[in-house]
Design brief:
Shape: globular
Bound molecules: protoporphyrin IX containing FE
Distance between the termini: 50 Å
Radius of gyration: 28 Å
Length: 701
């Protein structure tokens, strides 16, 4: 049975790889020989990758579900005690499985792009196929030759164990009686959907990049590629954003340090493409409306693509644990080479079209919408530079240790040791830039394209600004003295009042004109310009998230204490009493220590919390699960740090008070909703159909 599954799975992987190579060849041949049939065949090859990879993925899932521990990957990520749903998620719980999963998601996007209506953009098709298939072929190459999920475990004649795809001479198969099980930290609902979202966000960015490259190669460098890819980019951006938020939630619930974002390199790897994709979404509007920033948009999409591969590289190559383990890893240098090659080729293509991509109009006013978008772009790139530097600096100090040996004055920098770049660096350097973005987000919707003066801006903005000042006044009157926090709250109030004012202004004008109900007109308003109002909803989501961030970053308090049964710990207006602690083994091979604490707020008992520590015997790893009391005002978050196993008379608890943190999660729902409003497919209008008919007539279809 296992042989059949492995053969089918491996066969499907290899055939997909060959199909991808064929697709590249057929698309190039068809293009240069002017043979549309070859291009059609390449398109079919692209479509074929999805069913083929579905076979490969299904075989891995069956192997996981049926506990075939003789397959090395299965023994690493599952165990007998894991429930079936967790075994399925183990598909992306380790390196080999997640690379195949990545390719499978890529094949879904490849098929979707193949199935779109190409009537108006035939010349892009071969190049889109080439870019998508090259990316897919690269990942399949890694899966087949370096990180194969179908490799099996063998006992060599020497008695050693080895992992290999085919039987080494004289070896016998090794079938462990149980596997190590999925890393306990990954057994969380957030972690179950976080990686697929993150990967979806990553792979779907290949599509805008492919169109950009097609535009550069064919010379059709007008805004057409941008119009085609806007929806793709928005969906990709949504997946990426959801991946980030789910990762934050997972960190908050599972890592047990009271926070949601640690500026860890893995988090930064996911953030960096988002930091280029978000300004890209804005700056394409300048190209569409004003014919400006064409080169910049190309550069941003190239950067997003390469940062996406760089993110996967950071997480997968071993470079984060040490530069030396990267050098030893088989896939690390390959990733590095792929990033370098795609970046150099893309920049070369861009340079070839440099003159054609000249700007059509000049900036007439810094107070215009394009002026603000430009500053928005610069701020995002500023944050990217800070984050990028924070990620690579430790790698440089470690990897370039020899520079310190050669030049004594640089010995303090290039130490040959890994240095840690902590949250204070990131927060200090990016804080003002985030604040600047919030400010612009408040002002920009009130500006006009092309000509906007300080005076016209002032006329539009004074009412919402006046309303927003209520917030700092109330904060000062109620005794807040942290001026940074007051500034941050004022900025969120400014964006909120401008955004709501925009909705109000638009809907009430319509309502006056038509005589219909305000709410009905509000819905019509959004439906008529979903891009604009979807964008404003996204901004509203961002400011709700900002409230949560400001709350936890500026007002979090904590305390740690060891108490005996019945004793209390106090933090702010909360108090807990340690009531009891039970320690027991579970059927799924865990040892659980679960405390019961009563929570009092302002002297009143408001409930009980159950902070726990689970110890997983198979993987020998603990997992801290906090007890959390959540309200929209704050979270009261308790971690069981330590206890006396036999008597359970004393235990150590860490308590956090996290004001406003839940607005972070609420804001993310608003952001998702807004993005869906902006990205939802529109009905084909008669105008679009007419253009398509005309295009078909010109190509003689
Ligand atoms: C974290 C910060 C931000 C995020 C996540 C964000 C996200 C978005 C998204 C996704 C859209 C929809 C784009 C589309 O539908 O194609 C949008 C629209 C918009 N954004 Fe932002 N944005 C941010 C900051 C800013 C800033 C700083 C400005 C001001 C310079 C700005 C101005 C706008 C405007 C004016 C629109 C609507 C465009 C229209 O009228 O169609 N955004 N934003």
């Amino acid at each position: 049975m296992v042989d059949t599954l492995v053969n089918f799975g491996l066969g499907a992987l290899v055939i997909t790889f060959l199909v991808a190579l064929y697709g590249i060849f057929a698309a190039l041949y068809g293009n240069f020989q002017k043979q549309p049939r070859w291009i059609e065949s390449a398109k079919n090859a692209m479509l074929l990758t999805f069913p083929l990879l579905t076979v490969a993925v299904s075989m891995i899932v069956i192997l996981l579900l049926q506990n075939h521990f003789e397959v090395s990957y299965v023994s690493q990520v599952t165990s007998l005690s894991m429930p079936p749903y967790l075994k399925v998620t183990a598909l992306w719980g380790g390196q080999p499985g997640s690379l195949v999963f990545w390719s499978w998601l890529m094949s879904i996007f490849a098929s979707m792009v193949a199935l779109r209506n190409w009537d108006r953009d035939r010349e892009f098709l071969p190049w889109v196929i080439v870019v998508v298939m090259v990316t897919l072929a690269f990942f399949l190459l890694l899966s087949i030759f370096f990180e194969n999920p179908f490799a099996r475990l063998w006992i060599l004649p020497t008695g050693q164990t080895a992992e290999a795809l085919f039987r080494p001479s004289g070896a016998t198969i090794l079938t462990p009686s149980d596997g190590s099980g999925l890393n306990p930290l990954l057994r969380h609902p957030g972690m179950i959907i976080h990686p697929p979202m993150q990967y979806l966000g990553f792979v779907s960015f290949v599509i805008p990049y492919a169109f950009a490259m097609a535009a550069l190669i064919t010379g059709r460098t007008d805004a057409r590629w941008i119009r085609i890819t806007r929806k793709w980019t928005l969906w990709a951006w949504l997946f990426l954003s959801m991946g980030l938020v789910l990762g934050m939630r997972w960190a908050y619930d599972v890592l047990g340090w009271g926070g949601y974002w640690g500026w860890d390199p893995v988090e930064n790897a996911a953030l960096m493409p988002w930091l280029t994709a978000t300004p890209f979404l804005h700056s394409v509007m300048i190209q569409e409306k004003r014919g400006m920033l064409k080169r910049w948009n190309m550069f941003l999409v190239i950067l997003t693509y390469d940062l996406m591969i760089f993110g996967t590289f950071l997480v997968r190559s071993g470079v984060l644990s040490s530069v030396h383990s990267f050098a030893q890893s088989a896939i690390g240098p390959l990733f590095f080479a792929f990033i370098a090659i795609t970046f150099v080729v893309s920049i070369y293509l861009l340079s070839r079209r440099w003159e054609e991509l000249h700007t059509e109009t000049e900036m007439t006013s810094w107070f215009s919408r394009e002026g603000f978008f430009l500053i928005n772009n610069l701020l995002f790139i500023g944050i990217l530079v800070v984050v990028f530097w924070g990620v690579i600096f430790p790698l440089l100090t470690e990897g370039l240790g020899f520079v310190g040996d050669l030049i004594p004055s640089l010995r303090d920098v290039f130490t040959g040791q890994k240095v840690t770049v902590g949250p204070s660096y990131y927060e200090g350097a990016t804080g003002p830039l985030w604040a600047g973005l919030l400010f612009l987000m408040g002002v920009c919707p009130l500006t006009a394209w092309r000509i906007s003066t300080m005076k016209s801006l002032g006329r539009n903005i004074w009412k919402p600004t006046l309303v927003s000042f209520v917030v700092p006044v109330v904060l000062v009157v109620t005794g807040m003295s942290n001026w940074w926090a007051i500034l941050a709250f004022w900025l969120t109030a400014l964006v909120a009042s401008v955004t709501l004012y925009e909705f109000y202004k638009g809907a009430s004008a319509r309502s006056r004109r038509t005589g219909k109900n305000f709410l009905v007109e509000l819905v019509h308003l959004v439906r008529r310009d979903r891009r604009r109002y979807g964008g404003y909803m996204i901004h509203f989501g961002i400011i709700l998230m900002a409230l949560g961030v400001v709350g936890i970053e500026m007002f979090q308090t904590e305390t740690q204490s060891t108490v005996a049964l019945g004793e209390t710990i106090t933090l702010e207006n909360y108090m807990i009493t340690y009531d009891s602690l039970a320690e027991f083994d579970t059927a799924d091979n865990r040892n659980v220590a679960r405390a019961v604490v009563s929570v009092y707020e302002d002297g009143q008992k408001v409930g009980e919390l159950y902070p726990r520590r689970d110890y997983f015997y198979e993987s020998q790893q603990p997992m801290t699960i906090p007890g959390v009391r959540s309200t929209m005002e704050d979270d009261f978050y308790i971690i069981l740090v330590d206890w006396q196993p036999i008597s359970t008379q004393r235990a150590t608890f860490k308590l956090y008070h996290n004001p406003l943190v839940n607005w972070l999660w609420v804001g993310s729902f608003v952001l998702i909703f807004g993005t869906m409003v902006a990205a939802w497919p529109e009905k084909e209008t008669e105008e679009i159909r007419a253009v398509a008919r005309e295009a078909r007539a010109t190509v003689g279809d």
